[in-house]
Design a protein that fits this description.
By secondary structure, this protein is mainly beta. Helices cover 4% and strands 47% of the residues. The two termini are 40 Å apart.
Length: 531
């Protein structure tokens, strides 16, 4: 795949700059109190972002591959502090049972770089994205935190789509890998009127993709990334071209020690006319995290404001006056509501008949398997960087013989701590050695590394994860029978920081059967804390 080859060659270049980044950057996640903010503005895995402003609210959409619901939306009122706000794709309804973990699997398929925009003429939000390189879906809603509906399928691929709603209300999509095209959509935005190639990337540049489409001062701009270390922009007086190209950044030192070059993402204009660029930074094993920098314009070309030649670790906070606040993206959840919060996403589509909320999270076993990667209804949560701790309170009193339930570090190389019930005996165990190959097929279902007998029907399970960019980062597992005194269990688990799975590690809450369905657990509380 061209994207993979391009990223591989680019990442080799990135390594040259890691030493400079390490000396120039410091790790931070929260805004300072002195009028500055610190990058990354969100230290969680939100890649391929699109960013828009509607009134006094900013919205950021991201990729989610095989996680459901998909295309999460974050909301902010100052571009610095963000909260979970919704999902554009309530279910991965892509005409394939693989997204249900039914007769197949959809790991690293699903939602890649997609577009979010708002159309004032009909007060409607649009999400548009290509799935599996051969079809594009359009979803709409009247509010980002409202009900999204699949409205149409367009039978060609708007790869890495960028959506522009022109000043005359015409809707255009920029898309493509190296060969960049523009499509005009119908008046309702649900089908294609015409499409044509508008730009061919010079061989000297390599690959350009990740389109975002803007109009400013009479010019049309297509914002493009050179994965994974550059950003370019095209400009024309017509959406159909011809376009001229400028380099925005290449191998720019990033704001996270050990992380990659900020790239991709999109541009947004504040209420008072200032412009900002929200990129992402490769920061595996945690994933790809958003970073914000001011943009200036010279002769109608954009420039990233740098600090000592690199993307700043800190910048002055945007000049946005607001009294609006946002909810924390970490902290506890007792699952007291009748629906899951937007912080949660399932590994593939869930079996909705096998879980409930309101009095804790009740997970009935939904799959008989010996492979966690095949088990339905594994609920995932992004990990807060640079390090954080997840704890669940698990009521295992209704587990059946052969059931497995617990808390995982979930990716293509995984480990977990949880409860096994066999022959009427409950044991808390730490299991590692869960692996996939490069085709995302299971190559290891795990080996018990440590265990202890438990009783009483309730246990607290804990994972501490260090997701600072780099190799050798570790997660540590522990448990408690009283909620206060925790005992380490098993060896440290070394995280895989290769990028090919794209999504970073997540915490995963699971319950599956190895013998027969019928058992259940209840998660009374989840908590995500930072040091």
């Amino acid at each position: 795949m061209r994207r993979v080859l391009a990223m591989l060659s680019s990442l080799l270049l990135v390594g040259v700059f890691l030493t400079a980044q390490a000396s120039a950057a410091t790790v931070g996640a929260n805004p300072n109190l002195d009028g500055n903010y610190t990058n990354p503005v969100v230290w969680q895995d939100f890649a391929d972002g699109d960013i828009i402003r509607v009134g006094d609210a900013y919205y950021y959409s991201a990729s989610t591959m095989h996680y459901s619901p998909g295309a999460p939306i974050l909301r902010s009122y100052n571009l610095v502090d963000w909260e979970y706000a919704g999902h554009s794709v309530p279910r991965l309804d892509f005409n394939s049972a693989a997204y249900d973990l039914n007769g197949g699997r959809a790991y690293v398929k699903g939602i890649w770089a997609s577009a979010l925009n708002y159309r004032p003429s009909n007060s409607t939000y649009y999400w548009i994205g290509c799935v599996e390189f051969n079809r594009t879906y359009v979803y709409t809603a009247s509010a980002v935190d409202g009900t999204w509906a699949k409205r149409s399928q367009i039978n060609n691929c708007y790869y890495d789509a960028g959506l522009l709603i022109d000043t005359n209300d015409t809707m255009y999509v920029a898309y493509g890998n190296s060969t960049i095209s523009v499509a005009q959509l119908s008046a309702d935005g649900l089908s294609q009127v015409r499409a044509q190639r508008v730009f061919q990337t010079p061989s000297s540049v390599g690959t350009l993709e990740g389109s975002r489409f803007y109009k400013r001062n009479g010019y049309y701009y297509i914002w493009l990334t050179r994965p994974a270390n550059g950003q370019y922009v095209l400009r024309s007086t017509s959406p159909w071209g011809p376009y001229e190209m400028r380099q925005v950044l290449l191998n720019m030192p990033g704001p996270i020690s050990g992380g990659g070059v900020p790239h991709q993402g999109g541009l947004v204009q504040t209420q008072n006319g200032d412009w900002y660029y929200m990129s992402f930074v490769d920061a595996y094993p945690g994933g790809r995290v958003p970073a914000l920098a001011p943009i200036t314009w010279t002769n109608d070309w954009p420039t990233v404001q740098t600090v000592n030649g690199g993307w700043g670790v800190t910048y002055p906070r945007p000049n946005i006056q607001t009294s609006r606040t946002v909810a924390s993206m970490i902290g506890p959840d007792t699952f007291a509501s009748g629906a899951l919060g937007h912080r949660w996403e399932w590994n593939h589509n869930p079996d909705t008949s096998r879980f409930s909320t309101g009095n804790g999270l009740r997970l009935q076993t939904a799959t008989v398997t010996g492979d966690l990667y095949n088990a339905r209804n594994t609920l995932t949560h992004r990990i807060q960087g640079p390090s954080s701790t997840a704890t669940i309170e698990l009521d295992y009193s209704q587990m059946a013989n052969g059931d497995r339930s617990g808390l995982a570090m979930l990716r293509d190389q995984s480990a977990w701590i949880g409860v096994k019930r066999d022959n009427g005996v409950n044991r808390v165990v730490m299991t590692n050695g869960l692996t996939m190959n490069s085709s995302w097929q299971t190559t290891g279902t795990g080996t018990e590394a440590a265990g202890a007998n438990i009783s009483g029907g309730r246990v607290w399970l804990r994972v501490n994860a260090d997701i600072r960019p780099g190799s050798g980062r570790q997660a540590h597992f522990s448990y408690s029978t009283d909620g206060s005194n925790f005992v380490s269990l098993g060896p440290a688990f070394t995280l895989n920081n290769a990028w090919q799975f794209f999504m970073g590690y997540r915490f995963g809450i699971f319950n599956y059967a190895t013998q027969a369905l019928g058992g259940a657990v209840t998660v009374r509380r989840f908590d995500l804390t930072t040091p």
